[in-house]
Specification:
Length: 207
Protein backbone atom coordinates (compact mmCIF):
# COMPACT_ATOMS: atom_id res chain seq x y z
CA UNK A 1 0.00 0.00 0.00
CA UNK A 2 2.90 2.34 0.76
CA UNK A 3 4.22 1.76 -2.76
CA UNK A 4 0.84 2.70 -4.27
CA UNK A 5 0.67 5.82 -2.11
CA UNK A 6 4.13 6.82 -3.30
CA UNK A 7 3.19 6.21 -6.93
CA UNK A 8 0.07 8.32 -6.66
CA UNK A 9 2.19 11.31 -5.67
CA UNK A 10 3.56 11.72 -9.22
CA UNK A 11 1.84 11.79 -12.63
CA UNK A 12 4.18 9.06 -13.91
CA UNK A 13 3.33 6.91 -10.92
CA UNK A 14 -0.41 7.41 -11.47
CA UNK A 15 0.07 6.61 -15.15
CA UNK A 16 1.82 3.33 -14.32
CA UNK A 17 -0.91 2.36 -11.86
CA UNK A 18 -3.65 3.17 -14.40
CA UNK A 19 -1.83 1.15 -17.03
CA UNK A 20 -1.36 -2.00 -14.97
CA UNK A 21 -4.82 -1.73 -13.40
CA UNK A 22 -6.36 -2.37 -16.82
CA UNK A 23 -3.53 -4.27 -18.49
CA UNK A 24 -5.65 -6.50 -20.80
CA UNK A 25 -7.27 -3.44 -22.41
CA UNK A 26 -3.94 -1.72 -22.97
CA UNK A 27 -2.41 -4.92 -24.33
CA UNK A 28 -5.15 -4.93 -26.96
CA UNK A 29 -4.47 -1.22 -27.60
CA UNK A 30 -0.77 -2.01 -28.06
CA UNK A 31 -1.63 -4.80 -30.46
CA UNK A 32 -3.79 -2.44 -32.52
CA UNK A 33 -0.95 0.08 -32.59
CA UNK A 34 1.48 -2.62 -33.70
CA UNK A 35 -0.81 -3.72 -36.52
CA UNK A 36 -1.23 -0.09 -37.59
CA UNK A 37 2.55 0.36 -37.66
CA UNK A 38 3.39 -2.84 -39.59
CA UNK A 39 2.87 -1.39 -43.12
CA UNK A 40 5.20 1.53 -42.34
CA UNK A 41 7.84 -0.76 -40.85
CA UNK A 42 7.64 -3.04 -43.87
CA UNK A 43 8.12 -0.11 -46.24
CA UNK A 44 11.07 1.06 -44.13
CA UNK A 45 12.58 -2.44 -44.29
CA UNK A 46 12.25 -2.32 -48.08
CA UNK A 47 14.08 1.05 -48.12
CA UNK A 48 11.02 2.90 -49.38
CA UNK A 49 11.29 5.78 -46.91
CA UNK A 50 8.69 7.96 -48.58
CA UNK A 51 6.08 5.22 -48.38
CA UNK A 52 7.15 4.47 -44.81
CA UNK A 53 6.41 8.06 -43.81
CA UNK A 54 3.08 8.09 -45.61
CA UNK A 55 1.99 4.85 -43.95
CA UNK A 56 2.53 6.16 -40.41
CA UNK A 57 -0.93 7.76 -40.25
CA UNK A 58 -2.74 4.65 -38.88
CA UNK A 59 -0.22 4.52 -36.01
CA UNK A 60 -0.91 8.19 -35.20
CA UNK A 61 -4.63 7.43 -35.20
CA UNK A 62 -4.07 4.46 -32.85
CA UNK A 63 -2.04 6.62 -30.44
CA UNK A 64 -4.76 9.27 -30.42
CA UNK A 65 -7.32 6.59 -29.60
CA UNK A 66 -5.17 5.39 -26.72
CA UNK A 67 -4.95 8.94 -25.38
CA UNK A 68 -8.74 9.28 -25.62
CA UNK A 69 -9.29 6.11 -23.60
CA UNK A 70 -6.60 6.95 -21.05
CA UNK A 71 -8.02 10.43 -20.52
CA UNK A 72 -11.02 8.72 -18.93
CA UNK A 73 -8.76 7.15 -16.29
CA UNK A 74 -7.40 10.58 -15.34
CA UNK A 75 -10.93 11.45 -14.24
CA UNK A 76 -11.26 8.10 -12.42
CA UNK A 77 -13.70 6.85 -15.05
CA UNK A 78 -13.55 3.44 -16.64
CA UNK A 79 -12.70 3.60 -20.36
CA UNK A 80 -14.72 1.59 -22.85
CA UNK A 81 -13.34 -0.54 -25.64
CA UNK A 82 -14.84 1.77 -28.26
CA UNK A 83 -12.89 4.67 -26.77
CA UNK A 84 -9.81 3.25 -28.49
CA UNK A 85 -11.40 4.16 -31.81
CA UNK A 86 -12.63 7.64 -30.85
CA UNK A 87 -9.53 9.50 -31.95
CA UNK A 88 -9.85 13.12 -33.07
CA UNK A 89 -9.56 12.43 -36.80
CA UNK A 90 -9.10 15.98 -38.10
CA UNK A 91 -6.58 16.86 -35.40
CA UNK A 92 -4.69 13.62 -36.02
CA UNK A 93 -4.52 14.49 -39.72
CA UNK A 94 -3.10 17.95 -38.96
CA UNK A 95 -0.46 16.50 -36.62
CA UNK A 96 0.49 13.81 -39.11
CA UNK A 97 0.76 16.36 -41.92
CA UNK A 98 2.84 18.68 -39.74
CA UNK A 99 5.37 15.87 -39.30
CA UNK A 100 5.06 13.97 -42.57
CA UNK A 101 5.39 16.93 -44.92
CA UNK A 102 8.74 18.29 -43.66
CA UNK A 103 10.12 14.77 -43.20
CA UNK A 104 9.14 13.95 -46.78
CA UNK A 105 10.80 17.15 -47.97
CA UNK A 106 14.01 16.09 -46.23
CA UNK A 107 14.15 12.99 -48.44
CA UNK A 108 14.64 15.16 -51.52
CA UNK A 109 18.01 16.56 -50.37
CA UNK A 110 17.05 20.25 -50.14
CA UNK A 111 19.64 23.03 -50.05
CA UNK A 112 21.50 23.28 -46.70
CA UNK A 113 19.53 26.30 -45.49
CA UNK A 114 16.19 24.62 -46.23
CA UNK A 115 17.48 21.37 -44.74
CA UNK A 116 18.21 23.21 -41.49
CA UNK A 117 14.82 24.91 -41.48
CA UNK A 118 13.02 21.62 -42.09
CA UNK A 119 14.96 19.95 -39.27
CA UNK A 120 13.97 22.76 -36.88
CA UNK A 121 10.33 22.39 -37.93
CA UNK A 122 10.41 18.63 -37.34
CA UNK A 123 11.97 19.06 -33.88
CA UNK A 124 9.44 21.73 -32.89
CA UNK A 125 6.49 19.61 -34.03
CA UNK A 126 7.91 16.60 -32.19
CA UNK A 127 8.14 18.65 -28.99
CA UNK A 128 4.47 19.69 -29.12
CA UNK A 129 3.17 16.42 -30.61
CA UNK A 130 2.59 14.60 -27.27
CA UNK A 131 0.53 17.53 -26.00
CA UNK A 132 -1.38 17.80 -29.28
CA UNK A 133 -2.32 14.12 -28.95
CA UNK A 134 -3.59 14.54 -25.39
CA UNK A 135 -5.12 18.00 -25.08
CA UNK A 136 -8.29 17.46 -27.15
CA UNK A 137 -9.18 14.54 -24.88
CA UNK A 138 -8.57 16.52 -21.69
CA UNK A 139 -10.06 19.89 -22.69
CA UNK A 140 -13.12 20.72 -24.83
CA UNK A 141 -11.23 22.96 -27.27
CA UNK A 142 -10.85 23.22 -31.04
CA UNK A 143 -7.87 22.45 -33.25
CA UNK A 144 -6.41 25.96 -33.24
CA UNK A 145 -6.48 26.16 -29.44
CA UNK A 146 -5.05 22.66 -29.13
CA UNK A 147 -1.98 23.69 -31.12
CA UNK A 148 -1.71 27.00 -29.27
CA UNK A 149 -1.96 25.38 -25.84
CA UNK A 150 0.43 22.61 -26.84
CA UNK A 151 2.99 25.23 -27.87
CA UNK A 152 2.48 27.11 -24.59
CA UNK A 153 3.01 23.91 -22.58
CA UNK A 154 6.15 23.04 -24.56
CA UNK A 155 7.55 26.55 -23.98
CA UNK A 156 6.74 26.65 -20.28
CA UNK A 157 7.65 23.03 -19.55
CA UNK A 158 10.45 22.19 -22.02
CA UNK A 159 11.95 19.53 -19.76
CA UNK A 160 8.68 17.60 -19.76
CA UNK A 161 8.28 17.96 -23.53
CA UNK A 162 11.84 16.80 -24.12
CA UNK A 163 11.44 14.03 -21.55
CA UNK A 164 8.44 12.59 -23.38
CA UNK A 165 10.50 12.50 -26.61
CA UNK A 166 13.43 10.88 -24.83
CA UNK A 167 11.01 8.31 -23.45
CA UNK A 168 9.95 7.49 -27.02
CA UNK A 169 13.61 6.98 -27.94
CA UNK A 170 14.20 4.77 -24.90
CA UNK A 171 11.11 2.67 -25.55
CA UNK A 172 12.09 2.33 -29.23
CA UNK A 173 15.61 1.22 -28.26
CA UNK A 174 14.25 -1.30 -25.76
CA UNK A 175 11.80 -2.61 -28.35
CA UNK A 176 14.60 -3.05 -30.90
CA UNK A 177 16.82 -4.71 -28.28
CA UNK A 178 14.07 -7.24 -27.53
CA UNK A 179 13.49 -7.81 -31.27
CA UNK A 180 10.07 -6.22 -31.14
CA UNK A 181 8.72 -8.21 -28.20
CA UNK A 182 8.01 -5.21 -25.96
CA UNK A 183 6.01 -3.34 -28.58
CA UNK A 184 3.04 -5.22 -27.10
CA UNK A 185 3.64 -3.44 -23.79
CA UNK A 186 5.20 -0.02 -24.33
CA UNK A 187 3.06 2.19 -26.65
CA UNK A 188 0.08 2.45 -24.31
CA UNK A 189 2.42 2.90 -21.35
CA UNK A 190 3.94 5.91 -23.12
CA UNK A 191 0.45 7.19 -23.91
CA UNK A 192 -0.55 6.80 -20.26
CA UNK A 193 2.52 8.69 -19.02
CA UNK A 194 1.90 11.41 -21.62
CA UNK A 195 -1.78 11.83 -20.75
CA UNK A 196 -1.17 11.99 -16.99
CA UNK A 197 1.81 14.32 -17.43
CA UNK A 198 -0.19 16.66 -19.67
CA UNK A 199 -3.07 16.65 -17.18
CA UNK A 200 -0.67 17.56 -14.38
CA UNK A 201 0.84 20.39 -16.43
CA UNK A 202 -2.63 21.77 -17.11
CA UNK A 203 -3.31 21.67 -13.38
CA UNK A 204 0.01 23.34 -12.56
CA UNK A 205 -0.46 26.09 -15.14
CA UNK A 206 -4.07 26.86 -14.20
CA UNK A 207 -4.51 30.34 -12.68
Amino acid sequence: MKILTTLYETPIGRAIVAYFADLPRWTVANTLFTLALVPSLLAFYLDDFLLAILLTFPAFFALSGQCHALAKTVESRAPRWQDLFHAKLLLTITLWCALALPMTALLFNPAPIFFGILCVVVVLVLLVAPFVLCLPHLLPIGIRLVWRNALVLAIHFPIVALGLLVLVAIFAAVTIATRGALIIALPALWSSITVFSTHQLLHDSAP
